[in-house]
Structure to design on (649 residues):
């Protein structure tokens, strides 16, 4: 287990190094930040001074090494636009995005897995067909459109839920959270649901496929022959056997959900990371873009690491053989 | 009620309606099983012996369906029983062991957990007593260090131990009838012999009745008192195991015996049965065995032979071999 962890950590570090290079080089390829930093009427002297201050006159590799050095000391640089450390900017927005993402994933799992298992357990039934039809809609209709429809129906027509914002928040552990107040929860429902839909459909399809296959296998037949109820078969055997692919996809989806909550956050004016990155791209705020991309790659890498470890926890065959065996 | 057989199967018919046509996997199977008796159900792959086992438990997967006949367990009809009643009966009255323990045991759960689930399913044994019962049964099945096996996962056990665990799981709720579907086929010969010996001991000790499904006549002869030979969904010959093996009346049984390596003289080639098992979609007219039978006549091609019997030895053949 320790050896596995160590190997994975080294791999993760390599991936991060490569990613930081790509991101740094990639961001340098677009635009000239100087035009954003200073007004068009600034004198040549001021211009030269700013270029020197930000190290923009140095060759790319020198700039990268400097960036890497500061990064390793926890310094992501200052935002060109806001003039504050980038890390602060991101950390203020991160909880809102995490809150939204985790709620969406919670909805996807608690609703999607049971529905998918049902659809796989009774594949021909009208209810299963309805679930599968809904899941096709979930994977194929664009998120932004569903988001707009949700606002139209629940906020505009019915007036049950607010259309945007985080609502009332409570300060816990130094950050603001919406899900702890009734008003915040009401604000959270629609965007979380919107963000959940795609993953919900994905969970349904995966759980269905796994259940279909396992229901035909000997494990289920043997359990039935021993007198287990259908509920016990599903709960104890099938759920355990379909868990691995679900965890894999969930892990990968979690990272991409954080990264691409952009659309939902924009539609529901949710003040998260997505909105920050969109703003920084329009204003060519390089340090924010680079820091955001590096953090997102870090998130992907970490989650892949966690998924690998979760496998070992879920599947006893992947753990190292016990000394007793 | 004392002479009521533990299990009485009569004219059982299980058919599968597939896109290619109707498959008569089990087509009029009848046999009885007394207390503590072991019946060997023998046949080639696809002869319907496993489906017979599943039919008894009501575990035939769609598109399969029991279309007729009866299965009586201690006088109680099982065909058409409500799923709920069938469920409580499985494992507690009639249990089943399968061929491949790697596929039947759940790789994600410990042996102890799987045993616990099976005991919990019938809810008759509680708490610490459960553990004691698991350990007792494992010991009786010759599983060394049962305590530590409870915490083990199936992949940590050898093939022989795995199958012993699977057998233990099936016997946990002390059923009166066990349907053993080739439980030793996947094991090597020495392990097979050990498990057979333990099963024979268990049958003697507990009086459990068993249907031992196998394609291996040698194995069946060592464990069963009576044998039933299946061909294309029917029992073509049945009787006491000694009589049937020493003097088979049906040419198919003869063919099976002649193709056993143990029966061959050293240096001489084995005598396989010519041809292959018929597709159940295109079951031959008349006697299903006639295309492969040296004794077949026009009668065999047109008329399906009825079961005839002498001294408890039954066979379905127009031209039976000589009795001993």
């Amino acid at each position: 287990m320790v050896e596995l962890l160590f190997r994975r950590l080294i791999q993760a570090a390599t991936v991060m190094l490569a990613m930081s290079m790509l991101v740094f080089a990639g961001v340098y390829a677009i635009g000239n930040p100087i035009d954003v930093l200073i007004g068009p009427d600034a004198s040549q002297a001021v211009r030269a001074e700013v270029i020197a201050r930000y190290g923009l006159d140095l060759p790319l590799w020198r700039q990268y090494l400097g960036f890497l050095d500061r990064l390793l000391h926890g310094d992501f640089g200052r935002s060109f636009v806001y003039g504050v450390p980038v890390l602060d900017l991101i950390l203020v927005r991160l909880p809102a995005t995490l809150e939204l993402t985790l709620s969406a994933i919670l909805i996807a799992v608690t609703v999607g897995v049971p529905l998918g298992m049902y659809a796989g357990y009774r594949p021909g039934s009208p209810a299963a067909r309805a679930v599968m039809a809904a899941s096709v809609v979930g994977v194929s209709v664009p998120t932004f459109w569903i988001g707009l429809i949700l606002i139209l129906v629940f906020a505009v027509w019915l007036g049950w839920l607010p259309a945007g914002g985080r609502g009332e928040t409570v300060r816990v552990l130094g950050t603001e959270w919406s899900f702890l107040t009734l008003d915040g929860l009401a604000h959270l429902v629609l965007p979380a649901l919107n963000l959940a839909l795609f993953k919900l459909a994905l969970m349904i399809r995966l759980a269905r496929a796994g259940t279909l296959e396992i229901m035909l296998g000997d494990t289920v037949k043997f359990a039935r022959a021993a007198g287990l109820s259908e509920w016990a078969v599903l709960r104890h055997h099938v759920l355990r056997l379909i868990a691995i692919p679900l965890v894999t996809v969930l892990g990968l989806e979690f990272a991409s959900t954080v990264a691409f909550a952009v659309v939902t956050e924009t539609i529901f004016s949710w003040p998260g990371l997505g909105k920050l990155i969109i703003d920084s791209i329009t204003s060519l705020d390089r340090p924010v873009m680079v820091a955001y991309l590096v953090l997102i790659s870090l998130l992907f890498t970490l989650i892949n690491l966690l998924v690998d470890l979760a496998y070992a926890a879920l599947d006893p065959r992947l753990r190292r053989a016990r000394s007793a065996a | 009620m004392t002479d009521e057989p533990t299990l009485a199967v009569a004219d059982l018919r299980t058919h599968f309606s597939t896109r290619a046509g109707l498959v008569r996997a089990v087509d009029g199977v009848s046999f009885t099983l007394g207390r503590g008796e072991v019946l060997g159900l023998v046949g080639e792959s696809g002869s319907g012996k496993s489906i017979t086992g599943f039919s008894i438990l009501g575990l035939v997967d769609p598109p399969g369906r029991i279309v007729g006949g009866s299965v009586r367990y201690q006088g109680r009809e099982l065909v058409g029983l409500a799923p709920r009643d069938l469920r409580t009966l499985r494992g507690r009255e009639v249990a089943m062991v399968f061929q491949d323990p790697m596929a039947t045991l759940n790789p994600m759960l410990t042996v102890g957990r799987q045993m616990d689930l099976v005991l919990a399913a019938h809810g008759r044994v509680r708490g610490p007593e459960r553990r004691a019962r698991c350990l007792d049964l494992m010991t009786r099945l010759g599983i060394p260090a049962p305590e530590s096996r409870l915490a083990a996962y199936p992949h940590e056990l050898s093939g022989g131990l795995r199958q012993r665990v699977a057998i233990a799981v099936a016997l946990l709720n002390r059923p009166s009838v066990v349907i053993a579907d080739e439980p030793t086929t996947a094991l090597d010969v020495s392990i097979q012999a050990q498990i057979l010996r333990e099963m024979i001991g268990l049958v003697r000790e507990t009086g459990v009745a068993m249907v031992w499904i196998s394609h291996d006549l040698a194995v069946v002869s060592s464990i069963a008192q009576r044998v039933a030979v299946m061909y294309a969904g029917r029992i073509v010959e049945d009787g006491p195991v000694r009589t049937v093996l020493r003097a088979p009346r049906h040419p198919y049984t003869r063919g099976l015996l002649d193709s056993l390596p143990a029966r061959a003289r050293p240096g001489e080639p084995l005598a396989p049965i010519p041809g292959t098992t018929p597709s159940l979609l295109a079951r031959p007219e008349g006697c299903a065995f006639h295309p492969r039978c040296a004794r077949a006549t026009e009668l065999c091609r047109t008329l399906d032979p009825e079961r005839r019997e002498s001294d408890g030895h039954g066979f379905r053949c127009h031209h039976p071999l000589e009795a001993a």
